[in-house]
Amino acid sequence: MLFTWFMLGGFIFLFAPQKLTDRFQLGFAHLFGRPLNIGREISLATRARMATDTVSRTEYNQLLNHLANINEQLNEAYNKIEILSKIRLKPDYERMSFVPGDIITAPDVARTELIINRGKIDGLATDQFVIADNSIIGRISAVSPRTAQVRLFTDLASKIPIKIARLNVDKVMQGTGNNTARIPLLSTKHQVGKGDEVLAFKQPGFLDVPMIIGRVTECKRDEQNPMVWDVTVEPVCDIKELKTITVIVSSP
Questions:
Q1: What phi and psi, each to the nearest 5 degrees, are found at residue 92?
Q2: Do the beta carbons of residue 244 and residue 132 sit within 8 Å?
Q3: How far is CA 183 from CA 65, 158, 180, 235, in A?
Q4: What b/e string do you get for 149-177 counting C-beta neighbours within 10 Å, with b at 16 or more?
Q5: What is the number of other CB atoms lying within 10 angstroms of the CB of residue 208?
Q6: What residue spans of the chain are helical by DSSP H?
Q7: What's the CA gap between 189 and 168, in Å, rounded?
Q8: How far apart are CA 105 and CA 116, in angstroms?
Q9: In 10 A of CB 11, how many CB atoms?
Q10: Radius of gyration (Cα) for the chain, nearest Å?
């Protein structure tokens, strides 16, 4: 029935005089004109707002690059937190504070020093110990506001109190300038073997617990004094391949 009535209404409009249909069209436009105009204004306002919210391709690329930089900085921060967390897992290190840093200039064959991107503003000072791969590699020898110089324990000017792990004897290890250090004047009554661990002796205010610094690679009698050993020590990490380090900044 509904379909029949609609069909009948359609035929009536189809065969009705044009004047009558024109009046009906004008009446419909007059009756529903205002609601239609309101809807049209809402649509135009929405389009204008959407156009205002868009940015240029250049600005979009800048924002995208900024987001990539922020994400990389976040990943870097996570990596430093992970390094510091692993160090602090050992109870003896709880009293020590650590500052991670990046190596700016790595040592070459002729040099036994490196520059890092941390300085006085980060709490660094001379004689503080520097570690990498959980081992001592040297000490801070000079500091500027934003950078510091690390003197490796293999440097000719380096002298660090040490002990050989399985011996109850304290000595001073001196760098040779050739990626090694030596322990002079060690009595031959002590049994020293290749591979023995060498530990940096603790120094209150700088190093609260002994930490590995190298391993014995050669032990022979001193040429000038056969009663003592001439012990050669090498680092336990590949210093030339290092990218990051950590400075112990404990205060005396």
A1: -65, -20
A2: yes
A3: 53, 12, 10, 14
A4: bbbbbbbeebebebbbeeeeeebebbbeb
A5: 16
A6: 2-15, 18-53, 57-88
A7: 12
A8: 7
A9: 10
A10: 39
Q: How would DSSP label each residue in 28-54?
A: HHHHHHHHHHHHHHHHHHHHHHHHHH-
Q: What are the pLDDT tens digits along the chain (252 aa)?
A: 777 776 776 666 566 666 666 666 666 666 666 666 666 666 666 665 555 556 687 787 778 777 777 877 777 777 777 766 666 555 556 667 889 999 998 655 456 889 999 999 999 999 999 999 889 999 999 999 999 999 999 999 999 999 888 787 889 999 998 889 999 888 888 888 888 999 998 888 888 888 899 999 999 988 888 899 999 999 998 888 888 999 998 754
- C-beta of residue 216 within 8 angstroms of C-beta of residue 231: yes
Token pair of 58 as six digits: 């250049």
Structure tokens at 6: 């609609």
Q: Is 245 exposed, middle or buried (0-12, 13-18, 19+ CB in 10 A)?
A: buried
Half-sphere exposure of 190 (CA within 13 A, CB side): 24
Give the Cα-Cα-Cα angle 178, 225, 223 (nearest 5 degrees). 50
Type of residue found at 28: F
Q: What is the pTM of this model?
A: 0.64
Question: Two tokens at 85?
Answer: 């967390």
Among 54, 100, 114, CA closest to 244: 100
